[in-house]
């Protein structure tokens, strides 16, 4: 469904010079697949996601989604990025219904659909709250509901749970898996947390740092549906976590002996 071929991104440095952020990325993601991109800070994970989203053009290479070249953002790719904050002046209901109204849906129908989505992300009863009245985890759920409202075939998620406390993070991971198991949307999920990548994904793409290149692609051959408590005890899960941790902990290439 997503085909990334030879994608390279070079940024202009302020004050002159260039910075090679990602180099020659080739990756194919099948319909309904959950793929995580894992790597150290600054390796270009977000850049790759923004390029797939059509928000940033690649310097070289190409992306196609369902065979069509990506030339800009589109309703087939739903971003859940931290930078896309909620509208502070709109309620939870208003935030989730916004895209549906923009797409021309009548107010009552947009609100009915938004209410159903709010319930799906576990926020029933919070429809009339404003973002400032919500916790970080609740805001993130609203952001997910807002994106789901477009019904995109692909979800692009950039460390959606990165800023949350450990407990909320685990809860939202479970909720995301439940949603995914029901809808089987294609998900490209950026994270630097190994356990999160293993728990959620079908495959984990490990990136090296500076410039970001694909170092390895690891199949997460753990059965689904996955239950965290059971998974943590499985030796296969532990093995995968250790294997991936070793891969991302490698020293940067330039200081390798
Ligand atoms: N608009 C830009 N202009 C110049 N350099 C940029 C720009 N965006 C990103 N970079 C650089 O590209 C590299 C990759 O950045 P990116 O945000 O994609 O990394 P990341 O792996 O997502 O990092 P993190 O995990 O810390 O969010 C970094 O060195 C960053 O400084």
From TrEMBL:
Gene3D superfamilies: P-loop containing nucleotide triphosphate hydrolases
Family the entry assigns: Belongs to the ABC transporter superfamily.
PROSITE patterns tied to this protein: ABC_TRANSPORTER_1 (PS00211), ABC_TRANSPORTER_2 (PS50893)
ABC transporter domain residues: 2-234
CDD domains: ABC_NrtD_SsuB_transporters (cd03293)
InterPro entries linked to this entry: AAA+_ATPase, ABC_transporter-like_ATP-bd, ABC_transporter-like_CS, ABC_transporter_ATP-bind, P-loop_NTPase
Protein name per its UniProtKB record: ABC transporter ATP-binding protein
Molecular function, one GO term: ATP binding
Classification via PANTHER family: ALIPHATIC SULFONATES IMPORT ATP-BINDING PROTEIN SSUB, TAURINE IMPORT ATP-BINDING PROTEIN-RELATED
Record key words, sorted: ATP-binding, Nucleotide-binding, Transport
